[in-house]
Specification:
3-stranded antiparallel β-sheet; 10 strands; alpha+beta; Helicase, Ruva Protein, domain 3; 47% helix; Tetrahydropterin Synthase, Chain A; 12 helices
């Protein structure tokens, strides 16, 4: 089947592979993006399995903690210039406080909340008028903790990244250390038990094919695959990751040493999940495909 430049661009962005390698993988997979990604990984070509789809929208995140309730929120603007302005920052702080106080169910309910000027939506319109750019509430999460739990809140790069952690026991300092780790390392799951069985089976299959293609003796393939799977789990699960402030212990071990236990975490990064246009890259790929 014919492979488009757009498909090649998307696979190249996901995998880090070269243009022609990406095209070859798509041809071999009949244009199926997931199968093409697996093809590259099995051949040892893919440099990364993560999607590079972050930081397309501008804005900031914030965290507000009040008693046993915390809110983590993302507010968007069109440019980073406006995100750095006082009207934008003031709006973000007010929204975070309002969310903790009123505890709305979702963004729609939040926008309908009453404020001194009408509703929160009216406030955002007023901020838009002040800044000259559209200002919008993208998302938020409310988190509740028990009396014996500890909140850890951390903002990185002035609010480009926010991490909110709840520990059972321990203290706020420990919880903040873990939040800093979450912001820096970006784990996908809390523990390896939280990783879906389908994901594990899929990764095991990929590692098996990769190991066989490396020419390893079949009798030791199982052990090699098990080792690679454990290493993979240690990379994506918070509990098993090497703690950023002391790589000699895992995050779970660090928390346990402080008398606590991991309970939950949330990480926001401004603009994650929103695609950017990359016209120059598309042009480059089109030229390569036509050679």
């Amino acid at each position: 089947m014919a492979i488009s430049a757009k498909q090649v661009m998307e696979l190249r962005k996901k995998s880090g592979a070269g243009i022609m390698d990406a095209k070859k993988a798509l041809v071999a997979s009949d244009g199926d993006m997931d199968k093409a990604m697996d093809f590259l990984r099995e051949k040892g070509i893919a440099k990364a399995a993560k999607k590079s789809d972050r930081i397309a929208a501008e804005g900031l995140t914030d965290i507000k903690v009040e008693g046993n309730t915390a809110a983590i929120v993302e507010l968007n603007s069109e440019t980073d210039f406006v995100a750095a302005s006082d009207p934008f920052k003031d709006a973000l702080k007010s929204i975070a406080s309002l969310l903790v106080e009123k505890k709305p169910a979702d963004v729609e309910a939040a926008l309908a909340l009453e404020t001194a000027n009408g509703t929160l939506n009216d406030d955002l319109i007023a901020t838009t008028q002040k800044t000259g750019e559209k200002v919008s509430l993208r998302r938020f999460t409310l988190v509740e903790k028990a009396d014996g739990d500890s909140f850890g809140a951390y903002l990185h790069q002035g609010g480009r990244i926010a991490a909110l952690v709840v520990l059972e026991g321990a203290d706020e300092t420990t919880a903040k250390d873990v939040a800093m780790h979450v912001a820096a390392v970006n784990p996908e799951f809390m523990t390896r038990e939280d990783v879906p069985a389908e994901r594990l089976e899929h990764e095991k299959k990929i590692f098996t094919e990769e190991t066989l293609n490396e020419g390893k003796p079949e009798k030791i393939v199982g052990k090699i695959v098990e080792g690679r799977l454990n290493k993979f789990l240690a990379q994506i699960t918070l509990a098993d990751q090497a703690f950023v402030k002391d790589s000699d212990q895992t995050v779970a071990e660090y928390v346990a040493s402080k008398g606590g236990k991991l309970k939950s975490f949330i990480r926001y990064e401004v603009g994650e999940g929103i695609e950017k246009k990359e016209t120059n890259l598309a042009q480059e790929i089109s030229e390569q495909l036509n050679k």
